[in-house]
Amino acid sequence: MSITSKLLFLINSLMGLLIFILPTVLITAPKGGIIVVLMLILSLLGLAINRDKLELNKWEKYFVLSFIFYFAVVAINLWWFDGKLRDLDTPSRLLLVLPIFFFIRKSNISIDWLIWGIVIGAILTGVIKFGFIDANYLSKISTIQTGSFSLFSSIFGLASLILIKRGNSHIKNTIFFVAFILGFLASMLSGGRGVWIALVFSTLAILFINPMNWSTRVKFIVVLLLSANFMGTYLAPETGVKNRVDLAVKNVANWMVNGQANTSAGARLEMWEASFGVIKENLIIGVGEDNYAKHQEKLVDQGEVDKFVGNFSHPHGEYITSLVEQGLIGLLAFLMVLIVPIRYALDVIRSQYRYERRVLISVVMVIALHYAFYSFTSGVFDHQSTALFYATFMTIILGFLRLHSQNDL
């Protein structure tokens, strides 16, 4: 074995290990992004050693362009409105992870690193949420960004369910099932109501598209299983889920009847109503990053918006935030980041594919659809944790998808 081959083997092994621990680190470590930095460094080294020509297919090109386009739109918008350079920090994540995609598609890393990383991540979310591990000193997500923790738990849990298949050992399928239950419960107990909605609609969409090629009987069992879990967590007083759901319904009703905005749901609805007024006057390019609060303040002063929402600096919804800050161009950029990976996966579904590709396609769907639905009630790219999660996992999974397509596994 040549020195070059040995170096590539070492880099592939280290990359596989980092992929395996990535879900755990993103959940438990405040500085989890350091793992992605290490992956980026290894990818650049690997690409420098392995200089085989990169031949991207049509949808790979669209995927890369979607990430570049999103960054470019935000960057140009910041320049136009004299924004702050630090606001490029979050969107730059989509640009910086692209070498990871280029490297993985040229590597021979085993998909097992990714599969077991997701499963361990799902199990860990449940262990943390049930208090078996006191992660308060470790995790900024489980203690502060509860929505992010709930989102990651839901994604890992549903992905673990998808891994169950006939032909696996009973032990393996049992581990996957336990991971699903723990991830699901961790998500529900975290209180992320927007994530609960995302989980329901993502599951229904995935069952309809059916990239796993499940039979009608299996799909029916999955629906019953999820319904039973939802009802169980909703009815159990200890979970607090019923109280949060009932409170959300009450808050929405109070806002619609008497305009009460000093609640979580009421404030969102009030800000969304205010946002449409801002959008109408700045439809094409928006008002610029971090400028929404100024326009909202004017509406508050004019008495058109409840003064309670003056405490918020963005509309708490990625679609509306994109429209407000970057206009229709920004919304298009965000939609491309969500839609292109799904469209890429659907394109692969048309061809013959084996178990590994089915798993990858399904996980792409789980992540993209969760983000698509969750974005109605949360600014997913306003937070570094959720932006980094999406960018990194999409580059890893789509890189693996291309790798396994090339190897015809």
Q: Can you describe what's shown?
A:
It is built from 17 helices and no strands. The chain is mainly α and 409 residues long. Helix 5 runs parallel beside helix 17 (384-407) and helix 8 packs antiparallel against helix 9.
Blueprint of the fold:
Blueprint: H1 3-28, H2 33-49, H3 58-80, H4 92-96, H5 98-104, H6 112-129, H7 140-143, H8 146-163, H9 170-190, H10 193-209, H11 216-235, H12 241-258, H13 264-281, H14 292-301, H15 318-349, H16 355-374, H17 384-407
Helix pairs in contact: 1-2, 1-6, 2-5, 3-15, 5-17, 6-8, 6-9, 8-9, 8-10, 8-16, 10-16, 12-13, 13-14, 13-15, 15-16, 16-17
Please tag this protein with its features.
single chain; mainly alpha; 17 helices
Provide a quick synopsis of the model:
By secondary structure, the protein is mainly alpha-helical.
Distance between the termini: 25 Å
Oligomer: single chain
The description of the largest β-sheet is: none
Number of domains: 1
Unreliable runs:
135-144
Number of helices: 17
What pattern of helices and strands is seen along the backbone? HHHHHHHHHHHHHHHHH
Using the alpha-carbon principal axes, give the shape.
globular
Mean pLDDT across the residues is 84
Give the total of beta strands: 0
**What is the helix fraction of residues, given as a range?**
over 70%
